[in-house]
Design a protein that fits this description.
The chain is an alpha/beta fold. The protein is built from 19 helices and 14 strands. Strand 12, helix 14 and strand 13 form a beta-alpha-beta unit.
Length: about 500
């Protein structure tokens, strides 16, 4: 394999001002002539020069809108329409300057690396919510980061959805024909992945899992990061997937309770949300009203919202049952908006629509600002999952000060302390009772929501949380990094020593 020399990467001093891979550490004032001869200066991002002290940079395209009231509307529209590139500096009001400096120092230790993430989609779902800010932030801190997708057919994604369901405990047989489709499509994708220049590969969830079998001459570590609830996987399916998992250097799970008996190292990374994304940024009352109006969502009654994909694990029918029982005692309207990245979504959507009435509004809209507006305007936010790897929609709603009722499962129970910053439920009857309690007591809603927001601030926007956005990059050190560790026989002592970066 013609892999580039790691030492050459570290020793080479980048030059010029054209690369955006090192775009936030040095600034260069440059003069440019306007038409007509007037001189203006503007700032362009430079590569790390290797001489001046690294510092966080700026993003002129967005800064141009600051200080001009006439540009405020345009600035808001820009933020809603971009992916959300932010420097680490933007987090300073949330976590403090000293924490920012500690994180920047940790980033210095892996800045010479190039990392590739591989997943199945750019749109919808928790993995996309994580990788969008993560890959942007990694590049913004000088860590070269790529994001590759697995292309599939409907048959392939039908197979991977079945795998997803079995990992979360459903007893489904995975036929030889389905295994052939699954492995063949992954192989076809592998033929056009050229990863020789990377120093680490992070593969997300089961969809691309078998990729590693087609890179037997790999020199870099490969990590598998699983985002689903692995508390009780269906044994035959787990046995089948384990043959692929144990070829990786390490497996990364959301919670320690998802650890398994594997012959590879295991690490645990709690997800974090991006507070500046279109889904989470602050909205004015006017903006909230506009978005609800655009989608014809009336506000004449208190809103109860559930934001999740059309997935049986999110228990949409249980939500409707709970809502109807609550409505007998408290007037309200149910609004659901769902991710569109699920092969079974169409069938479940039709089932929901068949039982919906005028008090139930069901949307299938890929608009993160609408989600933001719904979570901010809802009197109650539901996430009554029966399985949940972590549940970022819970984190997002809590960050907005919403009163959240969540299923007592998986990652939700790690976020909600029952009766303190939300409520945990296991049945529709329990969910209905909590809905009525919150709908009838605005003071309780405010108290619960205030505690929820503060708990997210403490647990997701302090140093460990912001590291959580970049931690998978640092995890490459735990798998041997640039030292030439044999990826098929990881050295656990090296793994342990390098995990100090995470502490």
């Amino acid at each position: 394999m013609n892999k580039r020399s790691s030492s050459a990467i570290r020793d080479r001093t980048p030059a010029g001002a054209t690369s955006w891979r090192f775009r936030t550490y040095c600034q260069w004032k440059k003069w440019k002539k306007r038409p007509g001869g007037a001189l203006i200066n503007f700032t362009v991002p430079l590569q790390i020069c290797g001489i001046c002290k690294p510092r966080r940079g700026h993003f002129p395209a967005l800064e141009n809108c600051k200080g001009d009231p006439s540009m405020s509307m345009l600035s808001s529209a820009i933020q809603r329409s971009t992916l959300g590139l932010h420097s680490l500096e933007h987090y300073e009001p949330l976590i403090g300057g000293a924490t920012i400096e500690r994180i920047a120092a940790k980033a210095d230790r892996v800045r010479t690396m190039r990392v590739a993430h591989i997943s199945s989609t750019f749109y919808g779902g928790g993995v996309t919510e994580l990788l969008t800010p993560l890959t942007l932030m990694m590049n913004a801190t000088g860590i070269e980061t790529d994001w590759h997708l697995i292309q599939g057919t409907p048959g392939y994604f039908g197979c991977t959805k079945k795998i997803h369901n079995t990992l979360q405990g459903e007893s489904l047989d995975f036929s030889d024909a389905e295994k052939t489709i699954y492995e063949q499509v992954v192989f076809e994708n592998a033929t056009r992945l050229h990863l020789e220049e990377c120093d680490a590969i992070i593969v997300h969830d089961p969809q691309p899992l078998p990729l590693i079998t087609h890179f037997s001459d790999r020199e870099m570590p490969w990590l598998w990061q699983c985002h689903v609830d692995l508390s009780s996987p269906y044994a035959p399916a787990w046995t089948y997937l384990r043959q692929f998992i144990e070829q990786y250097n390490a497996a990364i799970f959301s919670l320690p309770e998802y650890s398994k008996d594997l012959r590879v190292d295991q690490r645990f990374v709690t997800p974090a949300i991006d507070p500046f994304s279109a889904k989470n940024r602050d909205l004015s009352d006017r903006e909230i009203g506009e978005f609800l109006g655009n989608y014809k969502i009336p506000t004449d009654r208190p809103l109860v919202a559930q934001i999740s994909r059309f997935d049986r694990w999110k228990d949409p029918m249980g939500v409707i049952e709970a809502f109807r029982k609550a409505r007998e005692q408290a007037d309200c309207r149910l609004v659901g908006n769902n991710a569109s990245d699920d092969p079974e979504g169409g069938k479940i959507l039709e089932t929901i629509k068949s039982v919906a009435d005028e008090s139930i509004i069901v949307l299938a809209v890929d608009d993160p600002t609408l989600v933001n507006a719904l979570q901010r305007s809802a009197a109650v936010v539901l996430q009554k999952s029966t399985r949940e790897g972590f549940g970022l929609t819970v984190t997002e709603a809590m960050w907005k000060g919403a009163a959240v009722i969540g299923g007592d499962v998986g990652g939700i129970r790690h976020q909600i302390k029952d009766e303190w910053n939300g409520f945990l439920v296991s049945t529709p009857d329990q969910a209905a009772a909590r809905m009525v309690q919150l709908l009838k007591d605005p003071g309780l809603r405010q108290q619960i929501g205030s505690r929820a927001k503060e708990s997210v601030r403490q647990n997701f926007f302090d140093e460990p949380a912001i590291r959580g956005l970049a931690r998978p990059a640092v995890q490459i050190r735990t798998a041997g990094g640039l030292t030439g560790l044999d990826s098929r026989a990881p050295d656990t002592s090296m793994v342990e020593s390098r995990c100090e970066l995470l502490r």
